Fold Cytochrome P450.
Amino acid sequence: MTAGAHGPLAENTGPVDNTGHSRGSNGAGPDKNPGPAKNPGSAGNPGPAGSPGLAENPGLVDVDTTHWLDAALQRVPLRTGPLAPPPPGSGLEPVPGDKGLPFLGLGVHTLRYGPAFQLQLLRRHGPVSWWQAFGRRIVAVSGPDAVQAVLVNKDKAFATGWPAVIGPWFDGGLLAMDAPAHLADRRVMQTAYGEEAIAGYVLRMAEDAEAALARWPLGRAFTAVPAIRELSSEVTPRAILGVAYEPAGRRIMRAVEECIHAETAAVRLRIPGTSWYRAHRARRLLLAGLTRAVPAARERAGDDFLSVLSRIGGPDGDRFSTRQLAEHALFTLIASHDTTVVATLASFYFLGRNPEWQARARAQSLARPGGPPTVEALGGLDVLERVVKESMRLVSPSPINMRVAVKDTEVLGHFIPAGQLVSVCTGVNQLMPELWHEPQRFDPDRFAPDRNEDRVHRLAWAPFGSGAHKCIGLHVGMLKVKATLDAMVRRFHWEFPAGYEAAWRFSSLPAPSDGMPVVLTPRTP
Ligand code: HEM
């Protein structure tokens, strides 16, 4: 049973049109575009006869109420009301939303259901709404037009909202910066993410993934989540810093993980023993180490990210100070790690649930020349490309992009006051039936050239974000994930027991709560 049918959270669950406007009856932007939902990308692609698509992945698009906690959460009173009164005569509407419980608000719902919860907000209130979580009121924008309005940010009304939410761990990195400094630094860094530069990183990543996977146990149960996290750690230091994983790279990645863990810390005081305290210590050590590493990286003329960046942006180019280079490198370590873990995990999960796709991916990987794949060889693996894109559609590694209003503004006719935190829900767009044919179904061929469902709107598929902060490492990220999966399908086979359904949770980035137990078996030719 799902909350689509029961409880106060199910109120006003009328369909939305393809701009994300609710066609329910709550007055939040309905009736402006009441035409039937269109999905041009799905025309002529009705899926297999008797397709079980609608029953697939229900937990990703809706709220399961079979567990007592979910049933209880669905009974939380919404306490619906406006966010802030619009200025008189502005013609703007207030943002509608839900307060939920005192202080806690609907915070537990947010962490437990992620995009499925925000999809509920969209259904209830339309593309611009607010909700309370842990004492904070956050505006959610969902649906392609609202998301586009904020990320394109035409009148510069929004700044990055990440530091306010997750803490100082990104400080000095691109995602913590705003125009004009952001644009200037990003321009310089672009070369370090260009085609020529990334060939070196990707080759190292592919070699290290191969070596790490050779140590994975076959024929006995193990849990995929920590293993894939460790794998990403092993694959990162040589490519990004030119440092071997053992022993220095391991220590560096542990410290990076301390910073990532603190993003969701409840206690934000530097009290020894807390994750906040450990993260401050980790960041200090990382910055000191990276600052020391920059001169050597510049000298060695290597093809790792830090060497390339130090040469392009270093004092010779008179652009970045050593400290700035260290901060950019640290943020790159953070940005490239967890996101690719989730993309790999999601792809691993869906390949394990869909053996026919695993077989197709394996056939293509085995057909390429042996050895660690080059960028060109990875580019030829179009089956894996579609699998990864579809997996990131269903489980978006970074399903929200945080922004803050720097002045009074509006989104789709709704008043947003200065200082308001805004969660841009790209992950919701990726699940909307108005944009995707049977969105809960794992169907990588929706990205095939004859369907191109993602082209229905430029914000329909946006796991890498959009606008000024769009992921600068998206090619590196895609290639890292593909190189890892390529090495996996060449080496072993895996399948989840029939009926296995991972319970994805969203406390930091998405991850299954059970660690995803699985048995790998050696590949048979
Ligand atoms: C599957 C993997 C990845 C995903 C899904 C992903 C996702 C994202 C998203 C959504 C943003 C924008 C956030 C926002 O606008 O609020 C972003 C920004 C960024 N990402 Fe990625 N990322 C991935 C891999 C990587 C990798 C591998 C690197 C570096 C090697 C990287 C470096 C960055 C940087 C530096 C930014 C900030 C860009 C800016 O602010 O101008 N990402 N990423």
About this structure: The domain at 168-522 is CATH 1.10.630.10 (Cytochrome p450).
